[in-house]
Amino acid sequence: MQESFIDKPGRLRAFVEAVSASAWLAVDTEFLRERTYFPRLCLIQVAGAEHAACIDPLAIEDLSPLRKLLLDPAVTKVFHAARQDLEIFLRLWGELPAPLFDTQPAAALLGIGDQIGYGALVKAVLGVELPKDHSRTDWSKRPLERAQRRYALDDVIHLGRAYTRMREKLQELGRLEWLESEFRSLTDPATYALEPMEMWKRVKGRQHLKGVRLAALQQLAAWREEEALARDLPRRWVLKDDVLLELARRSPADLEELARVRGVDRPLLQRHGETLLRRIRRARELPREQWPREKPRPARSSAAQEAALDILGGALRLIADEAGLSPQLIASRKDLAALLHEDPGARLLHGWRRQLAGEPLLKLLRGKGRILLCDGVPEIEF
User: Fold this and answer.
1) What angle do CA 199, 203, 204 make, to 5 degrees?
2) How far apart are CA 359 and CA 47, in angstroms?
3) SS3 label, residue 161
4) For residue 137, what pLDDT is reported?
């Protein structure tokens, strides 16, 4: 494996030329996000079968050769838990690397573990114990130590090796195509679209508000999101959740009332007081039918429905055991209830879940299958 640390444009061009014919490239990033809304990209690691490099985006202003490489549709880009890395590239280039392979959902389909961390994945697939010495490194500081570069390079070198083994096993099991819909979603820019008016759903404690107060929370949370975006600050630095909730609950009508809300300090009052009041007034002026609402809780199931769900759950465990997967990966009890109630959006009616479990469970529901106990051992018969 030829390894390099790249902080000069000429070296970047040479590396891109050396790996441009690769069928796949393992990719990782190191970034900081503690003090900003958007992650600050500090390092990009890329590895093929024979070359690996750490690329310093703080030293190289023109990353266009790397952009061309990672956007090449002939090269599969391999990530682990890809979403945050992809958000960085989307913001950096306005496009997403595709096609891609994410080893985290792939590991779940191999029965290695649901939402498995990278260290655990490498240990399970390669038998390698990765050090954790630099997991809290400040990657913006220069120069990087030799041990930091080693840590960063090893991430993508092992990722590439894990990918080749996992892909081969998925092909053997006939599950490689199961991942296609998930990977398509990861490479769809709409997946990362920001909707400020939906951010109220992330505020802890919102369930204690209803009606116009929930409308006020929606307006205030949208303002906070827009402000955080504009100033590139973490949301909590703009306004904490508990202050948002108190503002929505009390819905002050003027600056004097606003100043009495706990958590509203003088700088916030002076800089944003009128804006906050306008948002609250906007909520008050909304027609009742436009107030946001939490999704209603599903009606309490009857005893017969609960029994049906228990039967479906038992059948799901048998299907999962035969496939070597966890039942929770395939479906939750809520997913089973959606199937029972013939919800067209039920996860079990789509993609690989339908193929593996949805169709057998539908047959069971329609009386075309049954569960038998043979010497105390349950079996599904169709």
Assistant:
1) 160
2) 40
3) helix
4) 85
User: Position of tokens 């790996």?
Assistant: 19
Res. 323: pLDDT tops 80: yes
* Contact present, 116 and 330 (Cβ < 8 Å): no
The residues annotated as belonging to the active site are 28, 30, 85, 151, 155
Between the alpha carbon of residue 371 and those of residues 10, 190, 307, 354, 361, the distances in Å are 66, 42, 14, 19, 11
Tell me whether residue 46 is exposed, middle or buried, using C-beta atoms within 10 angstroms of its C-beta: 0 to 12, 13 to 18, 19 or more.
buried
pTM across the whole model? 0.89
Report how far residue 312's alpha carbon sits from residue 219's, in angstroms, rounded to the nearest whole number: 42
Domain locations along the chain: 2-192, 196-290, 303-381
CA distance 218 to 198: 7
Per 3-state DSSP, the chain is made up of helix, strand and coil in percentages (nearest 5) of 55, 10, 35
Same fold, 196-290 and 303-381: yes
Task: Locate 298 and state its tokens.
Answer: 């599903």
Structure-block tokens of residue 354: 């339908």
pLDDT tens digits along 136-190:
789 999 999 999 999 999 999 999 999 999 999 999 999 999 999 899 999 999 9
Q: Which residues face 377 on adjacent strands?
A: 374
CATH fold of 2-192: Nucleotidyltransferase; domain 5 (3.30.420)
- Report, at the CATH architecture level, how domain 303-381 is classified: Orthogonal Bundle (1.10)
Give CATH for domain 196-290.
Answer: 1.10.150.80
What is the token pair recorded at 92? 């950096």
Nearest partner of 273 among 194, 217, 220, 352, judged by Cα:
220
